Amino acid sequence: MNDYIVYSVATGKVHSVGVGSVDDVDPLVFGEDMGLLAYTGAGVSDALYVLPNGSVQQRGLFSLLVSTSQITASGLIEDECAITNIPAGTTVEWPDGQIDIVTDGEVRFAVDLPGAYILKFTAVAYLDKEITIAAIPAA
Questions:
Q1: Would you tell me how many other CB atoms lie within 10 Å of the CB of residue 110?
Q2: How far apart are CA 54 and CA 14, in angstroms?
Q3: Which tens digit of pLDDT belongs to each residue from 50-72?
Q4: Rounded to an integer, what is the distance from CA 136 to the centroid of its chain?
Q5: Could you list the residue range(s) of the whole structural domain that residue 80 is in?
Q6: What does the H/E/C string look like for the chain?
Q7: Are residues 8 and 27 in the same domain?
Q8: C-alpha of 107 from chain center
């Protein structure tokens, strides 16, 4: 019995972890691009990813910089939240469900309606991060 990881060969993203006989696991059940590794590290965890050389790594924490967690709900560029220090290739899921890939290290958020808005950041080498921006009514 071994710990095992089923992962995307292209991205290193772990899709399944488990304990059992590696011979009984078919990674292609999870998709065409899947690989399988026996893993004898510090237990099976969803906080892992696989490097191109097959090395299993712990996912790190994002070190995102958030200019403010509260903006005025006016939609004006003057009152926005800037989130910087985003690693290239990170996906951001906006409150409306749209998903974009960050290429320049930052995103900016402004809104017309008051409320709490959650932006979700995802990258294989990092634990997912959610940032909540409170939009208050304009005075």
A1: 18
A2: 12
A3: 999 988 888 999 999 999 999 99
A4: 27
A5: 65-136
A6: CEEEEEEECCCCEEEEEEEECHHHCCHHHHCCCEEEEEECCCCCCCCEEECCCCCEEECECCCCEECCCEEECCCCCCCCEEEECCCCCCEEECCCCCEEECCCCEEEECCCCCEEEEEEEEECCEEEEEEEEEEECCC
A7: yes
A8: 15
Q: Which of 119, 120, 118, 112 is nearest to 136 (CA)?
A: 112
Token pair recorded at residue 42: 């510090």
Question: Domain boundary at 58, 87, 102, which?
Answer: 58
| Model confidence pLDDT, tens digit, residues 70-126 | 999 987 767 899 999 999 999 999 999 999 999 999 999 999 999 999 999 999 999
